[in-house]
Amino acid sequence: TDPDHARRGIGREVITICEALAREAGFTRVELMATAAGIPLYERVGYTPVDAMIHADIEGVKVPLLKMGKAL
Fold first, then answer.
1. Are 42 and 34 in contact (CB under 8 A)?
2. What is the mean pLDDT of residues 30-51?
């Protein structure tokens, strides 16, 4: 997120729209892979950890990821 636009509810709005579309499509649960920076936002909107933190190797950089989920 561009620092000039952080903490303005944009991420929360994107999540709300995606969850609504998932519900309309018949899904009852959402799971995602969160980066460390995203975990606080996902926790605030009701996501909980599903699996332990893993490290994805992305172009030689180990990126910590946490699988999180939420019932819709």
1. yes
2. 95
The rounded distance, in Å, linking the Cα atoms of 47 and 32 is 9
Spatial CA neighbour of 47 closest among 32, 28, 69:
69
Residues found in the chain: 72
The three-state (H, E, C) secondary structure of the chain, written as one string: CCHHHCCCCHHHHHHHHHHHHHHHCCCCEEEEEEECCCHHHHHHCCCEECCCCEEEEECCEEEEEEEEEEEC
Confidence grade of residue 3 (pLDDT, cut at 50, 70, 90): confident
